[in-house]
Amino acid sequence: MLKGFDRLFALLAASLSAQSVLAEEQAVERWGVNMPKGVTEVAQTTYELHMLIFWICVVIGVLVFGVMFYSMWRHRKSKGYKAAQFHESTAVELVWTIIPTVILILMAIPATKTLYDIYDTDKADLDIMITGYQWKWKYDYIGSDISFFSNLSTPRTQINNQQPKNPNYLLEVDEPLVVPIKKKIRFLITANDVIHAWWVPDLAVKKDAIPGFINESWTRIEEPGIYRGQCAELCGKDHGFMPIVVKAVPQNEYKAWLDGRVASAVKMRELTGKTFTFDELFVQGEKVYTSMCAACHQPNGKGVPGVFPAIAGSKIATGPLNTHLDMVIDGSQVNPAMQAFGEQLSEVDIAAVITYQRNAFGNEMGDTVQPVDILNFKNKQ
Amino acid sequence: MKFSKNTKITVKLLALAASMLVFAIFVMPPLYDAFCEITGLNGKTGGRYVAVPAAIDESRTITVQFVASNNDNMPWKFSPSVRSVDVHPGEAADTVFHAFNPTKKDMIGQAIPSLVPFKAAEFFHKTECFCFNQQVLKAGEEAKLALRFIVDPDIPENVNTITLSYTLFDVTGRISKNIDKNNTESAREG
Amino acid sequence: MAHGPQPGLKRWLYTTNHKDIGTLYLWFSFAMFFLGGCMALIIRAELFEPGLQIVQPEFFNQMTTMHGLIMVFGAVMPAFVGLANWMIPMMIGAPDMALPRMNNWSFWILPFGFAMLASTLFMEGGAPNFGWTFYAPLSTEYAPPSVTFFIFSVHILGASSIMGAINIIATILNMRAPGMTLMKMPLFVWTWLITAYLLIAVMPVLAGVVTMMLMDIHFGTSFFSAAGGGDPVLFQHVFWFFGHPEVYIMILPAFGIISAIIPTFARKPLFGYSSMVYATAAIAFLSLIVWAHHMFTVGMPIAGELFFMYATMLISVPTGVKIFNWVSTMFKGSMTFETPMLFAIAFIILFAIGGFSGLMLAIAPADFQYHDTYFVVAHFHYVLVPGAIFSITAGVYYWLPKWTGNMYNETMGKVHFWMAFVGLNLTFFPMHFVGLAGMPRRIPDYALQFADFNQMASMGAFLFGAAQVVFLFNVVRTVMGGKKASEQVWENPQGLEWTVPSPAPYHTFSTPPILR
User: Fold this and answer.
1) For the domain bounded by A126-266, which CATH number is listed?
2) Which of A357, B129, B133, C118 has its Cβ near the most Cβ atoms within 10 Å?
């Protein structure tokens, strides 16, 4: 709390002294009091539009409140001021209807222009489909096999204050969206379950992701960098925990990244054929559980009574293996909150997490599941 | 005198309230649908189109992309056979989507189309589409779902890519009561 | 007509007296204001620091939802209806409301509606957690089981509002004293007349949208589900067709209160009475055609975005006229600054700030950045807290001596004002900053760069909460006793309510007053 006050005074002091421009800039940056200027043309135009409207409002406010404070100061009874009795003036009333209308028209012109820019439908260099899930994002690079989920990577221990928080607390993901700079990228945005909204302030892109329908938006990022955003439409429990990270890189780096993804896909296929030990699966399973399952079933596996079932001692995790596989791979047929993870996770991760669930939280099934079992289960169905 | 005046106005206002309720439930949804169809809002593409022969505009090529996704826990495998086709406005094109029911139970799916850019929606005509019907797939059954479409030659100049998305919903529970009726219907559509 | 109230509890249960029912409404809304306020404080306490400390995300979402619902439907709307009940008959020289039995009924179904809503907090799966805007499918397929109770309670609240609105219209149109022409009515009566029409137009739409939800959830229709040929976006259109006028329902009566208070303490007639009436009507009309500005990011054809942007911008013209008129009323007046006047002036300034941010939000391309951030939270709290809450507070201080016959404690009133004023700005002004810097709304935890401003906001919220305890204390003390108020209370205030004794007798204007 003290720290907060210190910073408040630091800000006040900084903004009061006109010479310390540098200090002020730093203070403003730390405090983040304004919309980011952004790294796309649309973002910059939007920022300018925002500032224009803001200053118009400030000028009107100063004028109106100025008159008001003047009369509050001068026209008070305690100063013996006698009240005038005028109460109408068609001319004046007409003036203050017309002038605001003119100002509005002046505002509407640049706003309309910007809107037309945003609605541009020229051909894009890259199309990316974005799908909102409770509570993560999936990115499909249309026209290639690249498709992955992007989950919050901030550990639960930080959220629960058991560990100091990272600088990018809640704004970091396991796999960012990687895109090339200076290319027109078209986003096709949809959702799997409820409505989400994909928002990255630096790109000035915010579009609702609606289940069953697609929306489009586009961007052309001018500067390489990492741009962070969040889901902007209330989508349930972990609405605050599904960030977006966009990594904009030069064309050659982007190419390298693409190649890397292909190579890792090959490696993943090899791993699927491998046989793991119980310990390997258990350790990996705990990681997968923490990032994919713990949000609902809780880190202790006890769930939330009445909302999310427990894993500890559950019929499924301590019952026949096939039922457990079915639940994880195809999701629940009755409870929409339990998703089908068959396509979201690799065979290795599914095998690991199932092994973990059957042997953690006091569950003692003692069995291991291998990636190849998952593959067989999927194919046999 | 006063009593009747108050009664009159109460009845009038109640009638107004009741008509607003009717408006909300029975008028707004169809009005909205009509509005969507005119403006292409949400990329709704309208119903079956009866093809009228039109000149093929060879000077323009439109790329039509196909994307398929499953809603929520729909376990079917569902994908387009090709990712995109290039067509000239006015020319009819065909494509196929694959659907496979990997589960051990019979299921019914419904594909919902959506198209961007919205302004292209009214110029994208489907003469044949699996999205008009509910699709029944028995356990382990596979199907090829046909789509035939024409891009209208009047499509605005600045549209050169159209993305057609299908989201597959599991409607087994929703319509299990009418399953027989739907079975016969889709059999007829063949 | 000369007999007084029944003794004991029966007085309140069976009463058809407009003053009794007004009192019931006001106390009920005061109770709901504290309940909704406690929920706000839970939210602010959780947001005091990054990380999850006090509540879990599920409960946090229930709090944001219930806070919104209770403040809108439980605190603000019943408070305005309570003021209407007390003041409209007295302002137009009528003995009572036109439909006194319906009046009793429209109040007494409210506690049941809210008991049902509050009971969802103790149900399995918890209370509604989908935000007060309850967007489908989060509120249908993905909702907790308590959603059904939520739907029924909304039906009850809607029925209550519609009955109240019918009663107000019937009273205003049929019960005016001879000579009280429409254009002689006080502005509070005018704004309520227009508000009541808005209520009748849009509350059924709310009832309709929750009914459609009910059918989707339990009867297999698919209004809002794409799977059956419906559309979740349809929900938003229907909801905001109700929701936007609802915002004006919560602010138009406030305009009436402020238009009564400013002239009294400026000792000068209201500037531009008729333009005030026309502006109110214009705002009400425009409110019906701007709903989709809440949905700019939902994906609309550009023509739609432009139409809703222009229409929304237009609203600032009549609203501006009102602000200019109030300032002109103050200009060259002979002002004193008692508590009602302080709240009224704060209303003008802070509501104007809310109006400015509203204008910024109307600009569709900029709204893509503002939408669903704390900037929006700051905007509508600036409109609703100083707008609705401050005007109600000002009205209570202004008319309390007339209701109770006792003067409230002026010092305590000023303490209340300054605590509330500072608390409010400390709470909501920093929200503009965090919103612009990128903090989405309705999140239980946030990134580190938002920490300082959130800390300020949380401290301000507790100050604001404490201020309301002072208010409660002051009101209770005034009801119990205090310096006797004169018939006029203030220096030469305008209006028929000041011609009856203080406290206002149980029955006023049993014979219509003679208007000069």
Assistant:
1) 2.60.40.420
2) A357
Among the listed ranges A99-103, A127-131, A274-278, C381-385, which one has the minimum average pLDDT value? A274-278
Model confidence at B178, pLDDT cuts 50, 70, 90, reads: very low
- Residue C433, pLDDT above cutoff 50: yes
Distance from CA of B135 to the nearest CA of A (A): 16
Q: Does domain B46-189 have CATH number 2.60.370.10?
A: yes
Q: Taking CB atoms and an 8 Å limit, are B10 and C165 in contact across chains?
A: no
> For position C226, which CATH number holds?
1.20.210.10
Classify domain A274-380 by CATH architecture: Orthogonal Bundle (1.10)
Interface contact B25-C208, CB threshold 8 A: yes
C39 in Cβ contact with C75 (< 8 Å): no
Helix (H) / strand (E) element for A294: namely helix A294-297
B64 vs chain C: nearest CA distance in angstroms? Answer: 20
Q: φ and ψ at C292, to 5 degrees?
A: -75, 0
From chain A, pick out residues whose CB is under 8 angstroms from the CB of B103.
330, 381
Look up the domain containing C153 and give its range.
14-245
A25 has pLDDT over 80: no
User: Residue A7: its chain C contacts at CB < 8 A?
Assistant: 452
Instruction: Examine the pLDDT at C1 and tell me if it is beyond 80.
Output: no
Q: Does C100 contact B at CB distance below 8 Å?
A: no
Coil, strand, or helix at residue C242? helix
- What number of helices (H) and strands (E) belong to chain B? 4, 9
Domain assignment present for residue C300? The answer is no
Closest Cα in chain C to B6:
C170
Q: 3.90.70.10, 3.40.630.30, 2.60.40.230, 1.10.287.90: which CATH number matches A36-78+90-120?
A: 1.10.287.90
Is ipTM over 0.90? yes
pLDDT in tens, C327-380: 999 999 999 999 999 999 999 999 999 999 999 999 999 999 999 999 999 999
What CA–CA distance (Å, rounded) separates B86 from B88? 7
Element (H, E) at C157: helix C147-174
DSSP string, A61-85: HHHHHHHHHHHHHHSBGGGTPPPP-
B102-131 mean pLDDT: 86
CB pairs under 8 A between A and B: 90
The beta-carbon neighbor of A216 closest among B75, B84, B117 is B117
Instruction: Assess B102–A contact: CB distance below 8 Å, yes or no.
Output: yes
Strands across the sheet containing B107-116: B84-87, B62-70, B161-170, B107-116, B134-137
**Would you list the domain boundaries of chain B?**
2-39, 46-189
If you measure CA to CA, which chain A residue comes closest to B163? A188
What's the DSSP call for residue A305? T
Cβ pair B16:C231 closer than 8 A: no
- Report the residue of A206, A231, A244 to disrupt the C interface, i.e. the one with the largest count of C CBs within 10 Å: A206
CA distance C384 to chain B (A): 26
Instruction: Determine the residue among B5, B10, B33, B168 to mutate to test chain C binding: the one whose Cβ has the most chain C Cβ atoms within 10 Å.
Output: B10
pLDDT at position C421 is: 97
Q: Which residues pair with C388 in a beta bridge?
A: none
- C436 and A34: CB-CB below 8 Å? yes
The whole-model pTM stands at 0.89
